[in-house]
Every structure is written in C-alpha cells, then in structure tokens.
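To: structure subgroup
Subject: Chain for Friday's discussion

All,

I'm putting the inputs and outputs inline so they're searchable in the archive.
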Amino acid sequence: MTQPTTIRRAPGTSPQLSNLLGAALSLAATGVPVLPLRCGKAPFGNCRRCAQNACGGRPNMKTAGPCRCPGVCHAWAAATTDPVVLTSPAWTTAWRRAVAIAYHPGAAGLTVVDLDDAAAIAWAREMLPATWAVKTTRGEHWIYRGSMTSYNGVRPGVDIKSSMAYARWLGPGTGHLIALPDTVRALAVKAPAPARPTPITVPARTESGPCPHRSPVFLERGIAMAEQQITTARSAVHATVYRTFLAVLSTHGRCGCLTDTHITRLFTAAQTKGETVRHCTDAWTNARTKLGM
C-alpha cells in the first residue's frame, strides 16, 4: 500500500467523485482491492437481485473481486482492483454517493489491528511490535504484512481486520510495514472457558494467639509463586489471574498479612500478561466476594 497519487479531475466530474475514485484507482493499481463506503462508514446495500443473498452470494467468499451483478454488492467481497469495474456506471453512481474508501486487507495480504482508543494504543505499544500505523478518528490502525482470520473484540477496544472484512482507507501513516507477528495471531486464539473455581473453606481466625502466616519467608514464597503462576500462563489468563488471586486471599487475606506492595506485585504480574487495571480489580473483588471478605 502506498499513498494514492493525485488524479486530475475530468471536466464535468464532481470533486467528491474525482477525489475518491482517483484515490481508489491509485490503491487498486498497487494490488489493494477497494470499495466505496456510504454515510456511516458502511458498505452499500445489495441490489435487489442480491438482497439477503437471494443470488446465492459470492461463489468463493474468501476472495475479493467483482460481484457477478454489476452493483457494489456483498460488502467486503465486492472489493476489486479491476479499473473497468471501479469506473463502471453502477460503481460510478456509488462513488458519487460515497463518503470514504474501504479496502479488503486479507485480499491484499495485510492485517489491520484496529485500536479504538488511547487505552488500546497504550496496550499495543507495550505488547505488540511496532509497524506501519495510521491515525483514525479515535485511535490507530496498526497494519502488518500477512493475512489471518478476522476477529472483533479480541481485547477491549481491539479488533482484527484481515480476511473477510473491510477497513477504511485513512491515508498514509508512519513507520515501516513488518511481517504479521505471532503475538497478533495469538490474539485470535479463543481461550477456554474459565474453569469453575473449587470452593475453598477458610478457617475462621481466632482472636487470640499469633497469626500463623506472619512469617516473612512464608509470605514472600507465596507471593513469588503467585507471580510465577500468572506470568507463565499460556492460555486462559483471565481464569488464571482469578484463581491465583483467590488462592492468595484464601491463605493471607483474613489475617492482615497482605500489604499494598504485595497486591501491586500481583497486579503488575497480571498486567504484563495483557490484563488491564480494571480486569485486575474485578478479579480481586470477585475473589474477595467468593471468600465472603
């Protein structure tokens, strides 16, 4: 993908049509399948023949290209690099009504990590390798070379757009395009459903006598083991964090052993695995509730 070249407006052509179509043709020439977007940043609806896939849909919905009908149908699957299709009467009508350009990343061999807000961008800067970044209205698109399955909501404020999806063309960005890393592919791996925690019976603390858990060595060993359990988790991170918090609280939560420093260590370990402060707080609160604390 490169920045579209400037296209001169033909006599009698509206600036809107000239600018969008010119940019679309420029992108298509680089091998990026494009399509127009209407108001609301959505694809145009199917024509009557294709309404609700009455035509049977595309013969192969995993590829981009012109639909069998002359209209801009089937959303991302309509994306094409064919200048004849892009400048056809039906498409020209759509370009006149369009407000933006979209492209099919997967068909161009690309993956877009759509970061919807500042929190998502901060997470990406810490957890993902830097690549070509494009500013959006509220966040950024991080674009990698390579395609994969598209997923929405892989994390709060994070979507993956590649195969069978479309992304808006928002102009040139900054940085250098790098190969799609395993860290992005791993975001699409569905974690198994969290196992239901085994009920824990916590003995009531007696009012007299020393706390049995006040040994600094015992407490330090427990916190260190909890940190290790979280940082070495390869899947089901949410469930692992919750179970670990539950185990720590069941052992040390009632006797006043835990300090803010200990809790911060546990939260930090969870955040290095991609958990947010809110997720950590929720897991801690749920564990306390489970134990009746």
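Points worth raising on Friday:
The CA atoms of residues 24 and 34 lie 6 Å apart.
The chain has nine helices and nine strands.

D.
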